[in-house]
Every structure is written in C-alpha cells, then in structure tokens.
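Tokens for Undecaprenyl pyrophosphate phosphatase. Go.
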Amino acid sequence: MTMVNALWASMRRNPWRWTAAMLVPLILFPAIDLGITAQFYDPVQKIFPARMSPMYEWVRRVMPYFMFAGAGYVLVLWLAGEVMGQVFLGIGRRVALFLLSSLALGPGLIVNVLLKDSWGRPRPSTIREFDGPNYFVPPLVFSDQCDNNCSFSSGHGALGFWPVAIALLVPAPWRGWAVAASLVFGGLVGFVRIAQGGHFFSDVVFSAVIVIGTTLWLHRRLLDGKDVASRKNN
C-alpha cells in the first residue's frame, strides 16, 4: 500500500479525528482567517489583485459550468443506458444516483441553499480589515451582515471538491491517487477564491468537510460492498 493509499485509508477509518484536526483550530483561532486573507490584499491600492487576474476570474466564472456539464454527461449516459438496456462507461443506476446525489446534497442543498443564504457571514472583501463596511465574523457564528450568497461556506470550494465522488469510483490500486488529485483540484479552486477576497480559508475547509463527508456517506449507502458486476446490473 502506497503512502497516499494509506493516508486515504486512515481518513476513512478515522473521519472524526481528521475532521476535528481541520476544523477545531479554525474555530478556536478565527484570526487564522484574517492572517491568510491579508496575504492577498494590497492595502495601498485597497484591492485584492487576484480579482483582476483573467486566469483567476476564469476559474471563478467558468469552473462551475464544467462541473454541471460533467453531471449532465453522467445523466445522459445513465438515461441512454436505461433506454438501450446497456451500461455506458460503468454508469449504471446506482453509480449515476451516487454521483448526481453527491452533487445535489453537498454543494447544492447544504452549502448553497442552507448555508450561503442564511448564515450571514460577510465576505473578506467587504469587512473593515480590508477597507469594507462590515465587521469580521468568525466561522460558525450567525450574522446579519449579509443577506444572501454570503461567505459561509464556499460554493466554489464545494463544487471543487465534488470530483472526490468520481475518484471513489476508480479501481482500488489507484483510488488513493485519484482522491489526492481531486483534493488538490478542490484546494486550488478554494485558493483562487481566497486570493480574490471572495472567501475565507475556513469557508473552503468547511465546504471540503461537508462535501467529502456527504460523499463518503452516500458511497457507503449506495455502493460499498457491491462489486463491479452488481453495479452494472443496478
């Protein structure tokens, strides 16, 4: 077992320990968010320079459409298979349900519907520490400083970590590497939003925990213990 696979196995065996290790420091020391965000802010020009970067803006504007296109592709393959009585690219009923529900539940319902429109945490670019009108609000603290599409938690970060669901379908010998690649991808998407002043570091981390947690739960409910043949038949 490679180091990457061993690390992934440890995360699956001890999810609460890993979750606590990631979240507790951010809850106890909220200044971590301010310190990280400050690295990307230009106090002289009073801007986040990354917001002017075409590459960063491309990620912000276009990346979500790639994720939705991927989900649409899964849906088309599954429906075509149902109509023709075949399984295309391994996308049977259970696999399609897993991939689509992991997108709908984590990034969709929990992050974008329940949290972003109700938590009220202002975005970094709008707080006084970075020349905005609002006060800094730590993670897990409700606020009335933002009405909708707020900072907590990160919608882009949530979408960026959704490919973990795809990685879980990779054959076991390469699964650890696939998961690692999907985590790097999600981390890079989150980095872009942090650098642009759109989200705090904790927003991205909480989105990662939510999406990965719901994805693992759905994987256990829908796919664990079923071999490839049974997946194709379902």
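Residues 3-233 form one domain.
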